[in-house]
Amino acid sequence: MKDVELPEAMQQVMAMQAEAIREKRARIIKAEAELEASEKLAAASAKMAGNPAALELRRMQMIAEVGAENNSTTVLMIPSEFATLSKTLSEYLRERGFRWRDRALFHNAGGTTSCRGAWGTDSSTSARLTDATWSRNDSTRRISMLGERISAESGKVTAQRVLPNPGGGPKMETSFQATGKLLGEDETDTGTYSAVVRPDGTLYGEGQGVVMGKNGDLATWIGQGVGTIKKDGSVSYRGALYYQTSSPRWSRLNSIAGIFEYEVDAQGNARSEISEWK
């Protein structure tokens, strides 16, 4: 057979069949690629969920890539409530001469700037306290002693759990509840802090909590500090703490930095003392 002629209709059917086979193969390949990509994305999201900073860094990297490739303006969408809250808080503090930098509170009054706070890093061996006053006409730094004790509490650890910390040391989250006095008023303090073990065996922790007074006053706090683990299993922390409240009786807390001593024994019994850093 040297020459075979097929009807035109049959040629069209065969072409359609070949096209359908090619389309089927393309869809299968695309589906397999989507499956593999979804598995990789799931693994990446699981890792980022354990470290919020990683998600923020990835977002910033994507923004940088978009700006570099397209050479155009990039619009970032954020909730309007967040922008309004940030603006209102900044204006409120600026009107009263306050500025926040790192974890220190700056107050400017009468040509003199005062600073109360603490700073440190995960690689440092201790938190460093700062208490300095600068004058426009005097650059001398003044170091003061601790002020009066503003709070004393005793309580109990209520819960603990291990947190993921990829690439870092063991990380533990601890919740507690304590009772005591804040500025002379009976109160209940409920808080949670997380601590990571650093290479030298010391602890670096950050926490937050809510204090409720007997007379209905309410205040929130954030703090950070460093700790040491003792041979008997107890832990001792030293650090700085900052309050925020709208209660008139506790309004003084908004402009002070507290220096705390926090001890918890192996059975979970905790006690703390907080003094004003003058």
How helical, in percent, are the residues? 25-40%
Number of domains: 3
Helix and strand element order: HHHEEEEEEEEEEEE
What is Rg?
A: 30 Å
First and last CA, distance: 107 Å
CATH topology of the largest domain: Porin
Q: Provide the low-confidence segments as ranges.
A: 119-143
Arithmetic mean pLDDT: 77
Mind explaining what this structure looks like?
By secondary structure, this protein is α+β, with helices and mostly antiparallel strands. The chain folds into 3 domains: 12-49; 82-135, no CATH class; 146-277, Beta Barrel (Porin), CATH 2.40.160.20. The protein is 28% helix and 43% strand. The longest helix is centred in the N-terminal third of the chain and has 42 residues, at 8-49. The model is unreliable at 119-143 (pLDDT under 50).
Give a quick set of tags describing it.
278 residues; Porin; 3 domains; 28% helix; alpha+beta; 12 strands; 4-stranded antiparallel sheet; 8-stranded antiparallel beta barrel; 3 helices
Summarize the SSE layout with pairings.
Elements: H1 8-49, H2 52-70, H3 80-95, E1 98-101, E2 104-109, E3 112-119, E4 128-135, E5 146-163, E6 171-182, E7 185-197, E8 203-213, E9 218-229, E10 235-245, E11 257-264, E12 269-277
Antiparallel strand pairs: 1-2, 2-3, 3-4, 5-6, 5-12, 6-7, 7-8, 8-9, 9-10, 10-11, 11-12
How would you concisely characterize the structure shown here?
The chain is an alpha+beta fold and about 280 residues long. It is built from three helices and twelve strands, in the order H-H-H-E-E-E-E-E-E-E-E-E-E-E-E.
